[in-house]
Design goal:
2 copies of one chain form a homodimer. By secondary structure, chain A is of the alpha/beta class. Chain A has 11 helices and 12 strands. In chain A, helix 3 packs across helix 11.
Chain lengths: ~325, ~325
């Protein structure tokens, strides 16, 4: 480390785990530390756990508070004008002005954004979106989140809530989504949707001819995207049928964004995308049905690069960007 | 006129008419002049007609070229990196670098953008979108075009093509669109779609109980959105059914944009929107099915204000904005 002043702290706050690390201006990640969120013990306990996590990263790396540039936080849920809202998995966390709370505890610059927004920013600065002018990232996991970079700047909308692409309607009056609405992208292409659709297929065919049924030993509660995609790659018909649905509606949503925003880059990340080419290749095949060729030909569709460190890396990048350093 | 140097020329190039006028920094419109485009006579003739139109506006207003700040052009089609492309109605016009061609003829600053982008900019600077930070305009006419303002700036995407919201898929594998794809918004909510759907209804019911059938004297080629909406307002069932479809898919598209961009303003303009509240009110009723309440509640849905002068006004505004005057 050339000078001590080259680090920020990134804090990725998940439903079960707080991940905390030192991040350099160049995206280096150092001293990753995981500790329990303990969201069930209430807001004060959570804030205290975050404070302790930050302090321990400082101690373990022999740094003092004045050695760091600032702290960036990423959290699930909508950040509405700086205050966390609408997070069904962390009810105790709703209403928390997290940057302000942490600034009061640490007195260094503190910044907060939605976790997918943060991961998008990390991919933009250090990963698959490097050099992009306009990009959209899809994080396809348990749910589906999105992030946008517009004209080279992280775009959060008029109230900090942009990027809820998991709840864009792809089938009017379609499958019921966890959000209570119908036909959302998340109801067709997320982990939860993949598991649910696979179970429906297996139940309707009594599971007799699917490798997936064998792979879970007949216990449908054990279905996961990994199992579904491993079987699809071996030619399993249920797996392939589920993938058709997953890719069709991702292509509808991606095509709509291409036509609307004329972006140069679309990044696909999140756990489901670990299946790789069987998804991305299929989406590329379907995109001509849902997008204008002149914009599609000028937009690259690429997998995310940063993997599980995208969160903390983006939290650090948020600090450096807000301080005008990158 | 206080000083002669306070005007730009706006040129709205349509498929049949060139509309040309003086525009002040404050959006005043003066000396509107219409002349034929004569697109069928080829590119050079069109460029010459545009040149003559500009010269005549100057002469009629006793101005010389050096009295104006610049000239702004709006045209249908995609402007790809400054060159007009993909305009099926003006084939002779494709491939024209219009701003460069006009700069060569007039030697004043020349700027060009898509006509809906231009109208959006006019509404943003002088009309229904005044003061907005992030807005999307839908121009619902023969086709459906769109324009975006992001972070207070006209947004044209990575190649100048953003805003093709008429071809966002709202029904996968749905009605065939004029663009050759299926299920585009334009196939459900444009003038062409309204006319086609109304004819289908009337044909399938043999037209016996619809006021629309009477209004066109049994000649289905005479169906227009005005007739359909006049009848719908009198309770005609066919008119109301068509409006349901028009509004449902506009709500799907608008809801998707609200969830994606978290804009503060959506503007609805274009000929179809002259029907007024029967459309906007119905869309507002449907939007909760297709958008997140926290973003929907923070986004106003308003009719366009500038009417038929939006085009030339926006062309002038484009000049003043590019010169850093507004």
């Amino acid at each position: 480390m050339e000078t001590k002043k080259s680090w920020a702290i990134g804090v990725d706050i998940g439903g079960t785990t707080i991940k905390c690390a030192l991040i350099s201006e160049h995206g280096d990640v150092k001293g990753v530390r995981r500790s329990p969120t303990e969201a069930n013990l209430g807001r004060e306990k959570m804030l205290n756990n975050i404070k302790n996590a930050i302090n321990e990263v400082l101690v373990e790396n022999e740094l003092r508070l004045h050695d760091i540039e600032g702290i960036g936080f990423g959290t699930p849920g909508l950040i509405v004008d700086g205050v966390l809202e609408g997070n069904p998995n962390l009810p105790a966390w709703n209403g928390t002005p997290i940057a302000a709370e942490m600034k009061a505890r640490f007195d260094v610059p503190c910044f907060v954004a939605n976790d997918v927004t943060i991961a998008t920013f990390a991919e933009f600065i250090y990963g698959a979106g490097k050099g992009a002018k306009n990009l959209v990232m899809f994080a396809v996991g348990t749910g589906i989140g999105g992030g946008l970079v517009i004209n080279g700047q992280l775009f959060e909308g008029s109230n900090g809530m942009a990027g809820e692409i998991g709840h864009v309607t792809v089938v009017p009056d379609g499958r019921v989504c966890g959000c209570g609405q119908k036909g959302c992208l998340e109801a067709y292409s997320s982990t939860l949707a993949i598991n649910a659709m696979t179970r429906e297929y297996l139940t309707s065919m009594r599971g007799k001819s699917s490798k997936i049924y064998e792979a879970v030993g007949g216990d449908l509660s054990k279905v996961t995207p990994r199992i579904v995609y491993d079987c699809a790659k071996e030619g399993d018909e249920v797996g392939l049928a589920v993938n058709e649905t997953v890719c069709t509606y991702l292509a509808v949503a991606i095509g709509g964004l291409i036509n609307t925003l004329n972006p140069d880059t679309i990044i696909l990340g999140g756990g489901v995308m670990e299946a790789g080419e069987i998804i991305i290749g299929n989406i590329k095949k379907k995109l001509p049905l849902y997008s204008h060729f002149m914009m599609r030909e000028r937009c690259r569709l690429v997998p995310a690069l940063l993997g599980e460190n995208a969160g903390v890396t983006g939290c650090g990048a948020l600090v450096f960007r807000n301080l005008g350093r990158i």
